[in-house]
Amino acid sequence: MSAPTLLPVLDVTACCTPLDEGTLGRDDAENLARILKALADPARLQLLSHIASSAEAVCACDLVDVVGLAQPTVSHHLSTLVKAGILTREKRGVWAYYTVVPGALGALADVLRHAGTNAR
């Protein structure tokens, strides 16, 4: 079985200019759409919020109660966020610990921040 393909971490300078500062090219639009699709799930948003608000890496074992889903489902959601370049995963013994990729949320916010403010 091959390793999963990881999406590049969203980097405003490498990926996308803010939406109101130019037209996205096809590659940038596809990359941004994959990231937004990964975030477009209530459970994933809850998991991301919980992990982002933690001062330390969060064990997957502690996230089941956060969303009220079975461990395999939580692991699937976490894997999706890792593949999208939003979370990092560190294996410690039998458990996996998750943190937000530094700058990933800020970069996404920068891309979206002023969308539509220049509309006439």
From TrEMBL:
Q: Which UniProt keywords apply?
A: DNA-binding, Transcription, Transcription regulation
Highest taxon, organism lineage: Bacteria
* Gene3D superfamilies xref list: Winged helix-like DNA-binding domain superfamily/Winged helix DNA-binding domain (1.10.10.10)
Q: Which GO terms describe its molecular function?
A: DNA binding; DNA-binding transcription factor activity
Q: Where is the signal peptide?
A: none
Q: Which InterPro entries match?
A: ArsR-like_HTH, HTH_ArsR_DNA-bd_dom, HTH_MetalResp_TranReg, WH-like_DNA-bd_sf, WH_DNA-bd_sf
PROSITE patterns tied to this protein? HTH_ARSR_2
Any matching Pfam family? HTH_5
Stretches assigned to the HTH arsR-type domain: 24-120
| The protein's name | ArsR family transcriptional regulator
